[in-house]
Specification:
Length: 206
């Protein structure tokens, strides 16, 4: 029997040291919201952009989700997959976490629930893994259907974004739209030329 969480009341997730996370129950709606957040934040990769330039431009995002230390030292498709997964779970935490107890800064002072603080919490080995496990327990199948059921693309870039279930903002949307129309225009022009002898002779002279 499939059981529905009708009440959808916030849950208390106990952490080490007496700390706790107050979070909404993970749902498919939260997953889709987090997916859109990740897509909006992930910088697109320009085909002509060199790797050092891209890494410099994307560094704030890498740092926010804790993958900046190793991203440039891994194969591109592996590094991109790591970033996708970190962003998905990080954005899910931002959507779900309402409050927390016993979590503070490096001086021990309590900190409020903000996007930067949630990102910092998810980078912590004492907070990130338990939150991720709780999310996995509810909607892991939905996440892996779009994120891990297929291997990462060997070409990386936009293809790998699609494999991971995140569609990045295209740097050249107009070019893609034009490319989609090119086959029709070319095929119709070829058909007209093949049926008109005088035009074919002019093309051969040029």
């Amino acid at each position: 029997m499939l059981r529905l969480n009708i009440s959808a009341e916030p849950e208390r997730l106990a952490l080490a040291g007496g700390a706790a996370i107050i979070m909404d129950p993970p749902t498919t709606a939260a997953f889709y919201a987090a997916q859109e957040m990740a897509r909006a934040r992930l910088p697109g990769r320009d085909d002509k952009e060199k790797e050092p330039a891209y890494l410099k431009r994307v560094k704030p995002v890498l740092k926010a989700y804790g993958v900046d230390a190793f991203y440039g030292r891994m194969p591109r498709e592996t590094a991109e997959r790591a970033l996708f997964v970190a962003m998905l779970y990080g954005c899910l935490a931002e959507v779900l976490i309402r409050d927390w107890e016993g979590i503070g800064d490096d001086t021990g002072a309590p900190v409020p629930v903000t996007i930067p603080n949630v990102q910092a919490a998810m980078r912590s080995p004492l907070i990130g893994p338990p939150v991720r496990d709780r999310i996995e327990a509810s909607i892991g199948a939905v996440i892996h259907e779009g994120n891990a059921s297929a291997p990462p693309s060997p070409t990386g870039g936009e293809a790998a974004h699609k494999t991971a279930g995140i569609a990045p903002a295209s740097a050249k949307p107009a070019a893609r739209a034009g490319a989609a129309r090119t086959p029709k225009t070319g095929s119709s022009a070829s058909a007209r030329k093949s049926n008109t002898r005088p035009k074919a002779s002019k093309a051969s002279k040029s």
